[in-house]
């Protein structure tokens, strides 16, 4: 059922505005890639191009290596789920799920039988005879997912499918998608602006901004080794520490941090995530600073510290995420250190 | 000098206020009753004028100021089965159905085209489509008559063309309103589910727009079914419809029974059609 999907130098224009610029991206078979970006970054346009609903201005779309750019949406064998479930209101739940089979020429009885299997997969077999208006938002989205899966798509395209659901339902949907991935192993392209959702559901994340892919990498790597400050910010990273690389060591107000040995000497931004920093006693750490803000966030607290800088160094503010509530107040002096030994830098 | 009023202890306040829950119950009670009362009043408003029509249609003699007819007769109702009236009914039905089909189809096409135009142009064209409503029917028909006569258009077709133009603003408006809230992504989803463009129109678009089709078709049917001026002026008496018979009967004296019976014959088909369309629109009869 699953296939690989490749965007090969895909560009798209709406009039004079270029919304996608030279996108090259490979989604391996049975993997899940999240397209992460803000509104207007072009991620939904890319999904519509993948579905065959929009022809690209330039470039090619390949499924299993075969060029499908000119193949119409109804023949492309993709399944699409939007933010709104968009269940056909004049059809019952089972007939919504049976729609693809009916379009393929299946009999009503056989199509409904198959549809019930997919309704069982999304745990809604008991709701088969209901009309869409009789379902809750979460149930509607489950049916929409079942309907897309019943198409037996080579690629499953999800356009912010859970963003209108409340937090609890969203967690349920994440679990459901995990089950579906285990059982059917579909290739999934997920469009989202929620970095947590991308991290929970996807194997790799492609960060889009202004129609360009800034970086495509596995979830952990893209968080801890962002290719640019923009990627770092989109992934929720709060720290960019300006310093200088000398012989594989980054010198800044945060102290001397070892970086990759092949990093060229010169000015560079060290980008330790707030979760990678820790507060220590003022005397123990190579860097010291003054607490400027303490912001509780449930089980964690975000502490902002202005580091003491030498005369030749830039003043640096860093954010440190700590578990629980630290025994600190604004104005206190604290030490700040990096968990682990190596840091990640982007040369300037 | 300032006068300070002491607050009265609550235990001394003699009046009893309803408890909040009781007040809420009374408000919710009114909320339940009010729509029923208003609905009943509306029904009465519509049905009350029909009572004299119904009574006249089965009256033998009815002299004022008697509240009810002095004698009863089914003669007027029986006369509805006369060949002349049946023929007129068929002409009216043909005209109503033809206008409904033509104006609904053209209205849908016009609304889809308007929807695709840039906003400013769409407003201008929309305004132009509404102009037949602003022109007095007599003037519109006289102007069209000259044009259609010189073009040698057959009578029924000429009447149909003018009535379609008259009905077009209603049908276009109905579809424009429906399209304003229409989510085109339903069609995109259907296409990714394997539906061709033609099947998308049949199984999704028509089904989702079924209520608008029903409303537009019904209004256009009414324009054709109940028309008098166009049929008289352009038809020139070549075919006689129910409104023409009704007009002729109503203008003569002593024919109240027949006028009432013809009025009922005019009312019943649209009511039956409305009931059918309401059911069709609510259910959505189109399935894949």
Automatic annotation (TrEMBL), chain A:
It comes from Nesterenkonia aurantiaca. GO terms for cellular component: membrane. CDD domains: ABC_Carb_Solutes_like. Keywords: ATP-binding, Cell membrane, Ion transport, Iron, Iron transport, Membrane, Nucleotide-binding, Transport. Residues 5-235 form the ABC transporter domain. It is an enzyme of class 7 (translocase). GO terms for molecular function: ABC-type ferric iron transporter activity; ABC-type quaternary ammonium compound transporting activity; ATP binding; ATP hydrolysis activity. SUPFAM superfamilies: P-loop containing nucleoside triphosphate hydrolases. Its EC number is 7.6.2.9. The keyword Nucleotide-binding applies. Coiled coil: none annotated. This is ABC-type quaternary amine transporter.
UniProtKB/TrEMBL annotation, chain B:
Its main location: membrane. GO terms for biological process: transmembrane transport. It holds the Pfam family BPD_transp_1. The chain crosses the membrane at residues 33-59, 90-112, 124-149, 155-182, 203-225, 258-278. GO terms for cellular component: plasma membrane. InterPro entries: MetI-like, MetI-like_sf. It comes from the Bacteria. Belongs to the binding-protein-dependent transport system permease family. This is Putative spermidine/putrescine transport system permease protein. It comes from Nesterenkonia aurantiaca. The lineage of its organism: Bacteria, Bacillati, Actinomycetota, Actinomycetes, Micrococcales.
